[in-house]
Amino acid sequence: MQTNEDQKVNEQNGSHQEVDDASQIKYFGGHEYDGIKELDNPLPPWLKYIFYITIILAFSYWTRLFVFHDDNIIQRREYAKEMAVANAKTDVAVKEEASRAAAAAPLTKEQILSDGKVTFDKICFVCHGKFGEGLVGPNFTDDYWIKGGRPEDLKKVITEGVLDKGMLSYKSQLNNAQIDHVIAYILSLQGTNPPNPKAPQGVKVEK
Amino acid sequence: MELQKFSYDNRMTRNFAIATIVWGVVGLLAGLLIALQIFIPAMNFGLEFTTFGRTRPVHTNAIIFAFVGNAIFTAIYYSLQRLLKTRIYSELLSKIHFWGWQSIIVAAAVTLLAGFTTGKEYAELEWPIDIAITLIWVVFGWNMFGTILQRRTSHIYVSIWFYIATWVTVAVLHIFNSLALPVSFLKSYTLYAGVQDALVQWWYGHNAVAFFLTTPFLGIMYYFVPKVSGRPVYSYKLSIVHFWSLIFLYIWAGPHHLLYSSLPDWLQALGTTFSVMLIAPSWGGMINGLLTLRGAWDKVRKEPVLKMFVVGITAYGMSTFEGPMMSFKTVNAISHFTDWTIGHVHIGALGWNGMLTFGVIYWLVPRLYNTKLYSNKLANIHFWIATLAIIFYAIPLYIGGITQALMWKQFTPDGFLMYPNFLETVAQLIPMYTIRAFGGGLYVTGFLILVFNIVKTIQAGSFVAEEEAEAPALHANSEIKTQSETWHRFLERKPIRFLILATVAILIGGIVEVIPTYLVKSNIPTISSVKPYTPLELQGRDIYVKEGCYNCHSQMVRPFRSETERYGEYSKAGESVYDHPFQFGSKRTGPDLAREGVKTGKMYKPNSWHYNHFIDPQKMNQASIMPKYPWLAKKEIDIQSTPAKIRAMITLGVPYPANYDQIAINDLKSQADSIAKDLAAAGIQTESNLEIIALIAYVQRLGVDISNKPVKK
Hints:
The complex is a heterodimer of chains A (207) and B (713). By secondary structure, chain A is mostly helical.
């Protein structure tokens, strides 16, 4: 067997040799297992330093948490902070956006509809179908409405939801402009004839 | 010195090697299948048995316990005898070990596909199989220690230190994590609940990585790298320091799987810091492996086995650096629940475990069959394919994981989520998933080349069942302490003391973390509005576990603005106190479900939505990658099991009223009827005794208890 011969050669060399030829490092005396020897190298210093540094890091982290109760690593306080910062930022942004919108030229109808479609394709289609044909939620393309077909009716449904039926409130996901635009888009679907329409629900609203 | 003649038993090494190869094919193909399913949901072929939620545990268990497990035993049965200059202790124990382990694997595959699971990752197997694993593990230990105690060498080599630590730690982890109360032959509830269960589970899960995928492979490395290269181990001192620091520190790091969860802050801090302290001990192993090859780099150029070892050890070094980085809370806030984690573990699995196993097989099988490897060239090709495969596998997942996490966290200037629809973030991943599956396919291809090469090698050789050897008897004065003997040298010739000391080292971390979490009440503040599940919800929860929903959906809203805006209030420790098992999950292939049932919340959908969605998710959402579950609307709830389940829950401390088990079925039926009635109002006619009804009841309960207006049941 090849292995046995390998071993024998190794063993014979080992019994006379105390230094590894290739590295000129001493073997550890008396260590030999199935021909495997071990060198007397010290731990690499850089590895030792990494180890010491990580231990120091650990102790400093524990000190921050257990002694100083640092807000940044106690997660419920970290969360409170994040929310406070975000709310302040949002307030400023909303005001700026409002003043900019007031100053800007009014949007064209196309712009309003295409902005509304973005919201629709992101959120509404899940329950109302890709073309507003209705799935779990009602069909938007026919003349029937459960909660009324005027823009203000739709706005109420979108902001307050119809929780019993599974329609969520979206006031924390959409801003005012987005809601108005998506309403315009939904109403623009009236009279389109998409495939697989859901049967009418609610009351017929004459135009 | 009197030379004793004896022989090494190669049979078990051979058997385990073949099992490694066979289960390797199975485990890798299961992995490839789920890699395809994740972007082609129809790849479950319409069968409940092959849905992602059931196949993924088959993949993980097959790779960890069947492929890597058998590879460990292959290498141990070979190296143990030679390092100790003795024959294996008992052929009978070897046989029981081998056949027992293979039967466990078969039982595991069958039960997991059939939906019998405890719902705890990498510990999914039900209680009879857990008991079998314990027994077979004892047989393995008995055989190993029997061999160690009849050795002809005075001291035990570093590989054997790692084998000993592996044996004892896996035993401790497996037994304590698997403690459960059986309800029936293949159904049990874990003794632990909620946060406590999560802590024990990830103490286990993390250390399964440490003591099943890492320490035995370090032992393998310490034997095979010097053996194949013919070079001495770089540093004996480093071996000692990194061995003890590794096994002591590893056991503490489990909570890094639960960062920003409802686990108490102090435990999370231990998880983070001990992970960071693990860098140097882990790298100690890498350095001792790579620097052993100093003076043999010319051989590495020619020998595919050594090339595989080099890539394997390097992958080990990379993933043991990446792991601590992911344990920083700031990094974890991005990486957790995404595909980044999947990429990370596969650097370890495909690189470290895979490459080392391939190397061992290519080196060992020709020796067992007294021949040469059929084709070195094919082995080289395998090496390159496998290396490329790892790159194609991991990089897309890193890109995808980070992309998705950033999308989850993106806000518009006016304070809304930029991507409120979860599916939008999934759509970005599809190309990445496709490339990942290609990488996985490459890896399988490489492995099939190995299979061909090994079959040819076996055909060309003749098996050497008994390998003759000789060694001097262990003489008495090796027991006498010499003056210059170091304490560790002393331990090396006292294996039982070594075992005891290793056991102490691995117990400390677990004890410090787990026991206070039970005894100190402030760790899990209770919430009075949190009530036990109704019988129907409990049945629904069992279906949720059975279908493996936790493989893709978390139930843990982290305290980030981006999560509370998307899902609702962040999860509290007191919410899951009746959850046996906890279902926090570890990956969000789909959205978090912790607040799914909160009517005033951001996630709520009506019963009819859930009904339609379970049957055909793509009907509700064309881009959805969730598989269809039509059988839920056909299979009936196992109503008769309800009283036993309620009784088990009462035994586990869930406060149902006295004798509630007797009226539980009535409550179940009336709740089911009301859901069926609600569905009927939405135009869906259905029986009320179907699994889908129970599952709807369960998801509609999620998160409800602590919301402002609890729904009256």
